[in-house]
Each structure stands twice: as structure tokens, then as C-alpha cells.
């Protein structure tokens, strides 16, 4: 469940609109430079709609969980939530895929243990 919440948080973060107040915006349509662009031969860029308020609240809560991990484990868990392949994660950490997976599982267990401890005291 922890991994699913982290993945949901990563997806919610991707859905948030880019906020760049200095960007120049125009109400004019995009200029068509080539014939193929005019008739839809390129695949369209589809963006998901903005996330709901509940999804943003869950994302904020989930991102706080990452504070409980040390730097390397935090990077590992977040990379996996963003669906980075195990091979690339292993290369970043300088370990094999199996070792990276074991460290990921240990980090998730650490978060789950902390969440369960908070639930039992509440």
C-alpha cells in the first residue's frame, strides 16, 4: 500500500500544471509550419486533467513520509515511484537490480512500520 501511495503521489505531481509566471502566453493558435502538422500526422500530446483536491492532500501527506528515510533510500523509493526501471536505479546506486529491490523493500518496510506505530498510538 505504501508503494501504491508513493506512485499515486508521483502521478499527482506530474498532473499539476507548470507554473511559470514569467512565461509569455498568447491566445493565438499555434503556427503550422509543415503540411504534416496541419493534418494530424503527428501523434497528439495528451495531458491528464488537473488532480483533485483529495489527491493533492494525499500527495502532500505521502511526500512527508520520505523524511523518514535517509538520502539514498529516499532517492531509491522516489525513483521507483516515478517508474524508473530497476536497471537504471541499480546503475545510479552502483548495485545490482536485486540489491536495489531489497533496499527498496527495506525502505518501504521502514515507512510502513512507522505508519503502523503512529496508527497504534492514535
Distance between the termini: 20 Å
Detail the poorly predicted runs.
none
Number of helices: 6
Overall mean pLDDT score?
Answer: 87
Element-level helix/strand string: HHHHHH
Pfam family, one: DUF6362
Domain DUF6362: 14-111
Protein name: DUF6362 domain-containing protein
Task: Describe this entry's structure for a reader.
The protein contains six helices and no strands. The protein has helices at 2-15, 35-38, 53-65, 71-81, 86-93, 97-121. Helix 4 (71-81) packs across helix 6 and helix 5 crosses helix 6. InterPro entries: DUF6362 (IPR045942).
Question: Any descriptors?
Answer:
122 residues; mainly alpha; 0% strand; DUF6362; DUF6362 domain-containing protein
Task: Please write out the topology.
Layout: H1 2-15, H2 35-38, H3 53-65, H4 71-81, H5 86-93, H6 97-121
Helix pairs in contact: 1-3, 1-4, 4-6, 5-6
Question: Would you summarize the structure shown here?
Answer:
The protein is mainly alpha-helical. The protein has helices at residues 2-15, 35-38, 53-65, 71-81, 86-93, 97-121. Helix content is 61%, strand content 0%.
Amino acid at each position: 500500500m505504501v508503494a501504491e501511495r508513493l506512485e499515486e503521489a508521483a502521478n499527482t505531481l506530474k498532473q499539476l500544471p507548470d507554473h511559470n509566471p514569467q512565461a509569455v502566453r498568447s491566445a493565438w493558435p499555434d503556427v503550422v509550419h509543415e503540411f504534416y502538422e496541419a493534418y494530424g500526422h503527428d501523434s497528439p500530446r495528451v495531458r491528464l486533467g488537473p488532480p483533485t483536491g483529495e489527491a493533492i492532500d494525499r500527495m502532500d501527506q505521502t511526500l512527508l513520509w520520505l523524511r523518514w528515510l535517509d538520502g539514498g533510500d529516499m532517492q531509491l523509493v522516489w525513483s521507483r515511484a516515478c517508474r524508473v526501471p530497476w536497471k537504471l536505479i541499480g546503475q545510479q546506486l552502483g548495485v545490482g537490480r536485486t540489491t536495489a529491490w531489497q533496499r527498496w523493500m527495506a525502505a518501504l518496510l521502514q515507512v510502513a512500520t512507522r505508519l503502523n506505530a503512529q496508527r497504534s498510538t492514535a
